[in-house]
Design a protein that fits this description.
By secondary structure, the chain is of the alpha/beta class. It contains ten helices and nine strands. The protein is 37% helix and 23% strand. Helix 4 crosses helix 5 (111-124). Bound molecules: adenosine-5'-triphosphate and magnesium ion.
């Protein structure tokens, strides 16, 4: 397993129980979705796994990473991609300096190796090389999210946490980003912890799914089983409320 979360609890101030005894695991190179209504604790779980928030109790094991390891070591195992790339990108930094900065932090490359790596990363996320000199404001939302994904993949992490990473994008652009994620997983063996409330996204990208409600996991299993034949009433309700039933992202649709 690249991630094993055991009996995780998070109680915020004023006794708000955001996560209430949650356990789940992501196999090496696997893809687990967390779905559930707003406020069910999905982001809190993700932020704790990424080390952005402390758990009240419970354990988290990231591959063979020691709990004592520092930020840099942890960053080589787990990276996170957020909903709004514009907020997480530095507005004054070109695409190549954004990616170069991460590469410099994690590796010791000479100038030509560094340039080569940046080129590879742009290829990996399907961004034309001419965007290397662009600033975030010169890019579309989909292109910015490609940059954010390239940056997250730069340290060659074993697990990528994506929190509503395509939620803000137009449907056709969502499809392209999802296809890119499917391809990037195949190419790099990175695993995904994929947080979304869009079940069609889950179908396209994930192997397994957990359904959260009020801080607890109410149902879990392979995507086909849970979404095809849900047992819990809450999951049945969720499955019944898919906004775009049968929606499948088209391959080869126009690039953003
Ligand atoms: N920093 C915080 N301080 C206090 N309460 C918080 C904090 N962050 C989250 N919560 C509460 O914890 C609960 C779970 O929130 P969380 O953001 O994890 O839900 P979510 O499933 O990601 O929801 P959404 O689908 O809207 O993103 C909510 O009740 C929320 O109000
Ligand atoms: Mg959230």
């Amino acid at each position: 397993m690249i991630l094993e979360v055991n009996d995780l609890r998070k109680v915020f101030h004023r006794d708000e129980v955001a996560v209430d005894g949650v356990s789940f695991a992501v196999p090496v190179g696997g893809s687990l979705a967390i779905v559930g209504e707003s406020g069910s604790g999905k982001t809190t779980c993700a932020r704790i796994v990424a080390g952005l928030e402390h758990a009240t109790s419970g354990t988290i094991q990231l591959g063979d990473l020691s709990p004592k390891s520092g930020r840099k070591e942890k960053a080589r195992v787990v990276q996170m991609v957020f909903q709004d790339p514009y907020q997480s990108l530095d507005r004054r930094q070109t695409v190549s300096s954004c990616l170069g900065e991460i590469l410099d932090f994690h590796s010791d490359l000479d100038k030509s190796q560094r340039a080569e790596k940046i080129k590879d990363l742009l290829d990996l996320v399907g961004l034309d090389q001419r965007y290397a000199t662009a600033l975030p404001k010169q890019l579309s939302g989909g292109q910015r999210q490609r940059v954010a994904i390239a940056r997250a993949l730069a340290p060659l992490p074993r697990l990528l946490i994506l929190d509503e990473a395509v939620a803000a994008l137009d449907v056709s652009i969502q499809a392209q980003i999802l296809n890119l994620l499917v391809d990037a997983r195949a190419a790099t063996g990175v695993g995904y912890l994929f947080i979304t409330h869009d079940l069609s996204v889950v179908r396209h990208v994930c192997d397994d799914v957990i359904v959260m409600r009020r801080g607890q996991v109410v149902e879990r299993g392979p995507v086909e089983k849970v979404l095809g034949d849900p047992t819990h009433d809450y999951t049945k309700k969720l499955v019944g409320s898919i906004p775009r039933p049968g929606w499948v992202p088209a391959r080869g649709s126009t690039r953003d």
